[in-house]
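protien #1 (seq + structre)
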Amino acid sequence: MIGAILCGGQSSRMGKDKGLLKLEAKTWAQTAIDKMAVLSLPVVLSVNSTQYSEYAAIFPSSQLVKDDESLLLKGPLCGVLSIHLQYPSEDLFVFACDMPLLDPVLLKELYTHYTSESSFDAFVYTNEKEPEPLCGIYKANGLAQILNLYRMGQLARHSMKFMLEHINSSFIALSPDQKTSFRNFNAHSELNGL
């Protein structure tokens, strides 16, 4: 398994690259890497082509996976499938960089579900019955199915939530006290208090 930190968004509402924002002197990308360290997994960062040089100045280039230009996709799904194309036999633990409040205990909990329930292709939390696909585990076989649907033109919507409807997914409901872990930040005005 590989930890896959998603940093490749446009960050248009934030006005600057979210992965390079700082929290206690660390970039959000580094904060996400540090949280994944509880699982002792190798970690890669998903970036788009416009971000690559800025990230390469901070992180080893071997740790960066640029969006695959053969995929006519945008958003997180492009990043996830780009990593899958580079590491087709690896299951991916996907984690978006814009969730700096996430408690690493939740990463461990999800990993425990993955190790104990082998029949599923994806493992994600739900918040008010809505999936939280940007902190989830996706098995290589499930990602291969999605890639195949995309290549056959049968992936009607290019979203992570839509993808979950097409693979055998295990959903774990968040308890009320866990929900703040999944607060993500999209605009500069939301950063007060961080």
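ok now protien #2
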Amino acid sequence: MMLPLWVLRGVADGSIDRAFRRWDRPRVKAGGRQRTALGVIGFTSVEVVAREELAEDDASRAGFASLERLLTVLDRRPERPIFRIGLELVGPDPRVALREALPSADELNDIVRRLDRLDHVSRHGAWTRAVLTAIGERPGTPAVELAASFGREKMPFKLDVRKLKELGLTESLRPGYRLSPRGESVLARLRRRR
């Protein structure tokens, strides 16, 4: 579920605890979680609500200045049901702490094995070392430029970088990426392995 930065900030400071979407079916479930730029957001409830049941309190708790403004946004897709989604900040994104944690020798070996596995199952050949190297040498380079330098499309390339981010090796910038301290440590190990 895409949540704009202003909503994330509201959830983080406690001023927003719900969101509304018109979906053909639920896209999140109660009890689910989602990592975001400002931390892990939890979905406390997901329920269908009739348009006429919405009140000013709903609009306020979703960060809208008025019910009228909320309805204007929701009425862009009047053919779909309205879902009210309860939101809460669960905690920080665990990848943030992971990025800063330098791996032990055992963790380093495990990360290298995982990168080897990603290379092995890739349909476009080994890529992890080259992408880590490119990000390390060109921090802040837009994804579209990095992807083009590998002769790849932007979105599949970004999916690969997301796999590195899950391991705590990269972090997103606006634009582009950079290596985390953990990523720099892993890249140094890969270079020694040659």
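The CA atoms of residues 108 and 189 lie 8 Å apart.
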